[in-house]
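Marked as duplicate of an earlier ticket. Keeping the data here for the record.
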Amino acid sequence: MTAQAGSAPTVSLQARSATGRYTYRAKAPRTQPTDHSDHSDHAKLAHALGVHRQLLSHATSAIRTLTAARNELIAQAIEDGLTIATVSAATGENMKAVRTIALAYDDLHPSGLPRSVHLSAVKQKSDELRAAERHRAQITERREALIVMALRNQVCDDLELASLTGLTPDHIRRSSRGIARPA
């Protein structure tokens, strides 16, 4: 009696598979690609989305680097006596943003560089930043086109596309609204 009173209740392990691992039981049977071209289309699309994800990551990293360099140039130009309005006109940023950037760098000392050097450096870095942002926008547009193509041709479902692109399933669903899908 003492052995039974101290023992834990037994749990039936019949619900587990023979290996002890979780087994997936879907209510609807999964459809497998029937021919080689479906598998090939899926592989090509997965590769293209992976490439675009990597390109987008590199473009975003370049934008962060260019933004940091441009902001430092802006702050140094303001420290060396350029007006906020002049720097704003050179960069295309509004004056409030330029002022905020300048105030973020409180450990700068006057460099003694002429005004024209500061202006040309700030303009050049701003142009590079705008070009990098345009490049990122182009990559994003191509990725969205690939998503639409995948949904129209039913190569991937929403969750798989979210996994391949690094986007949320909600973003995929929102972007796929209004897309005619074959029945």
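See parent ticket for discussion. The first helix runs from residue 2 to 6.
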